[in-house]
Amino acid sequence: MHARVLIYGALLAAGALALQVLDYQRFALGHFGEIYAFLIAASFLALGVAVGLRIASPPAPPFDGNPKAVAALGISARELEVLELIATGRTTQEIADRLGLSPNTVKTHVNRLFEKLEASKRIEAVQKARELGIVR
Fold first, then answer.
1. pTM of this prediction?
2. May I ask the CATH architecture of the domain 67-132?
3. Whose C-alpha in 36, 95, 128, 134 is 20 to 30 A from the C-alpha of 16?
4. Residue ranges per domain, the chain?
């Protein structure tokens, strides 16, 4: 009994789908020009919004990374690169892959950063670096 109901239901759904497809084809053929004009207008609207957002938004001010604090702490250029990648949430392996270093070298740079920033965790180091204006 249940199988028969499921078969009839599937046939009715297929018939309803076929009628909807035929109705859509009739609509699309009857209003082709309007649909085409709408798609062009929507494309130009999206393009205008995208260009307007780029033109209207002011450029972000350049970030210099507080070179005085970097020099005072004795942070090397490579350690600064590692610190910036830590601030973006990268793992040791991801940092190593991105900079072409071994994970052990990255760990050495991280430990030196901990000493120089007087931190015991990555989040502390990033927080202190942000307070000093070294990273964003």
1. 0.56
2. Orthogonal Bundle (1.10)
3. 36
4. 2-56, 67-132
